[in-house]
From TrEMBL:
Family: Belongs to the MoeA family.
Keyword annotations: Magnesium, Metal-binding, Molybdenum, Molybdenum cofactor biosynthesis, Transferase
GO molecular function: metal ion binding; molybdopterin molybdotransferase activity
Domain of life: Bacteria
Reactions that this protein is recorded to catalyse: adenylyl-molybdopterin + molybdate = Mo-molybdopterin + AMP + H(+)
This protein's name: Molybdopterin molybdenumtransferase
Record organism: Caballeronia mineralivorans PML1(12)
Gene Ontology cellular-component annotations: cytosol
Length: 436
């Protein structure tokens, strides 16, 4: 059986105790494959938002279905432009009638005639050009305009110009967006085939954790990680399976992991993977599955376990699920989710992952940074009058300062080999609006 650990050791810069973020992403990318057996659901358009298409959607019609006008004006045979002394003289045409959207002009105008036409109306037979209404002078039933101000074929939308019949409108693996719903509706398509939502089980570990609504005993804290994980999973439109809080003992953790592996495609825990936690955690992971790495060179988020779990008596038996053991600190949970887990969930959902878009910005302040790890600091970015971005940190960057995520509008992405940043240096930022 090929193991994640065996594959990981073949990845450049592999160090299970200080794995660069790029190497960790590559390992996860190789193991986070689309599910082998695709479960297809047909859903109506109102239920298709953020779902993953299981096959190409082919246009059954031309869009637009007929040549039509791109604006309000007058439609005519563009050959008349050639008769106006090379286009230097004014052209006078008689108005033969009107074409409205949904109410085409009946008949065929003569070469000396034109048709008053509205945006979206069918181009009348024999016409191929539209002169905008603001370029003409109308007197009674005649219009006059400069022939040099218009080219033959202008302002005409051709049938199939947007989409030709038989052409793929949306590709397999696409996450359906709001604009896609409109596109599908314009094709007369009322439902689409999508993949079953990925099932993701998640839980928090720790004897000190209490759920919202419970009284806090001395030394206890409310569990915030399940709520941020639920929100991030919900925005990705996967099916979240909340397993609650798991206590710090081997039997409880084993039950939670086995149940999660049976119920879900992916298992995410928070807490219980850092140095100093009970020894049974690592032993249990090795007993139930195959862990590729335990630590990455990332701040926040250094303690992060990744591997595969099985529900059987030994690795390789029973149901399997990918496992992400995230840190316990709230900011570290969010950072590791977006930069390590997110792409894996997209790939396993059958979607086509794309790199998150980074924007170059100027740091407004010095930023302390140690070379040899990738840092994701919380920042507040603004754009000046010339369109250039500037960014400053939110202040203290401790991985337990969850308020820094609420105050920030971006991550400041400081690369693995970078050292301290001076004010005025260029840095990369990832706006939170880019995240799912």
């Amino acid at each position: 059986m090929n193991t994640t650990k065996h594959f990981s050791s073949c990845v450049a810069e592999y160090d299970p105790n200080a794995l660069p973020v790029s190497a960790a992403q590559e390992i996860v990318r190789q193991w986070a494959l689309p599910r082998g057996r695709v479960e297809v659901e047909r859903v109506r358009l109102f239920d298709a938002l953020d779902r993953v298409l299981v096959k190409d959607v082919v246009s059954p019609i031309n869009v637009p279905s007929h040549d039509n006008s791109a604006m309000d004006g007058y439609a005519f045979d563009g050959a008349a432009l050639l008769d106006a002394s090379g286009g230097d003289e004014s052209l006078r045409l008689t108005v033969a009638g009107t074409a409205l959207a949904g109410q085409p002009f009946e008949g065929r105008p003569l070469a000396t005639q034109c048709v008053r036409i509205m945006t979206g109306a069918l181009i009348p037979p024999g016409c191929d050009t539209v002169v905008p209404q603001e370029l003409v002078q109308r007197a009674g039933d005649a219009v006059t305009f400069a022939a040099s101000g218009i080219e033959r074929g202008a302002n005409r939308r051709l049938a199939g110009e947007d989409l030709a019949q038989g052409q793929p409108a949306l590709r397999e693996g696409r996450i359906v967006r709001a604009s896609d719903l409109g596109l599908l509706a314009s094709l007369g398509i009322g439902e689409v085939a999508v993949q079953r939502r990925l099932r993701v089980a998640f839980f928090s570990t720790g004897d000190e954790l209490r759920s919202v609504g419970e009284p806090l005993a001395p030394g206890c804290i409310y569990d915030s990680n399940r709520y941020t994980l639920f929100a991030m999973l919900r925005r990705m439109n996967v099916e979240p399976v909340d397993l609650g809080i798991v206590r710090d003992d081997r039997a409880s953790l084993e039950r939670a992991l086995r149940q999660a592996t049976q119920d879900a495609d992916v298992v995410i825990s928070s807490g219980g993977v850092s140095v100093g936690d009970a020894d049974f955690t690592r032993d249990l992971m090795n007993a139930l599955g195959d862990v590729a790495f335990w630590k990455i060179a990332m701040r926040p988020g250094r303690p992060l376990a990744f591997g595969r779990l099985w529900s059987g008596r030994r690795p390789g038996e029973g149901e399997s699920a990918l496992f992400f053991g995230l840190p316990g600190n709230p900011v570290a949970v969010m950072a590791t989710f977006y930069f390590i887990v997110r792409e894996a969930l997209l790939a396993m959902s059958g979607a086509t992952p794309h790199s998150l878009p980074l924007i170059s910005a100027t740091s407004s302040q010095p930023i302390n940074k140690r070379a040899g790890r990738t840092e994701f600091q919380r920042g507040i970015a603004r754009r000046d009058d010339s369109g250039h971005w500037h960014v400053a940190t939110t202040g203290p960057q401790g991985s337990g300062v969850l308020s820094s995520m609420s105050e920030a509008n971006c991550f400041i992405v400081l690369k693995h080999d970078a050292g301290n940043i001076d004010a005025g240096d260029s840095v990369d930022i990832l706006p939170f609006d880019c995240l799912i």
